[in-house]
Amino acid sequence: MQSFIKYLNLSMSLVYIMLGSAMLGNSPFFKDIPRNYTLIVGVAMIGYGCFRGYRVYQKYFANHEE
Question: What pTM did the predictor assign?
């Protein structure tokens, strides 16, 4: 079960990064939203995706030996 959660967390961090990248690019999915909002939300989503990815790495992949 822990392996499933690990890969679910990794995939969600990638989804946030990809969705934020799509918002920063000129994706047709976000054409009705003003550009200022897509820039702000896109950068926030990429930042949050990187943060989640870092947390998953620290929790599951970093060597915890001291």
Answer: 0.84
Query: Is 11 part of any domain?
Result: yes
Tell me, yes or no, whether 16 lies in a domain.
yes
Cα end-to-end distance, the chain, whole Å: 27
Residue 47 in domain: yes
Q: Which two tokens mark 27? A: 């994706």
Q: Spell out the residues 6+ positions from residue 40 whose beta carbon is closer than 8 angstroms to its own.
A: none
Per residue in 2-40, pLDDT (tens digit) is: 889 999 999 999 999 999 999 999 888 888 999 999 999
Tokens of 23: 């918002």
Residue 55 lies in a domain: yes
Nearest to 54 by CA among 13, 21, 15: 13
